[in-house]
Amino acid sequence: MEQNEAEESQLIPPANVAKAEPTQFEKKIDELAEKWWARYIAGAVLFVAGGFLLDHFVGLEPGKRWNSYIHYWLWMFVLFGWGVICMKELFGFVILALVFGGLAYALFGLLAGIPVSLAIIIGAVIIANSNARN
Hints:
mainly alpha
């Protein structure tokens, strides 16, 4: 029993171990990462790299299945994700643009899918309603 407790105590690191000071290189990298222009350039590079990967993925050979290129999908999402993280100020704007863009796309698709006769009836109701007010 005492031997097991001794082994377990060796596995747990002591609490009083001081953390190593960051090197000058690490400090400079952290300072650079706080500058907006450096993060946006890094984000743009990551988006371009993801775009090249997407272009390579979309230009697949005929007859190939998409799951044989799953690693391209994964790297593409990782690159785009890192690009969005680098451009953290634009992250909320990108999410809102995607949501409202999707809603607009769905609305226009819904309107385009309405049969012509129903569209004429709705238009006639709108015109009759506006004429009734006058």
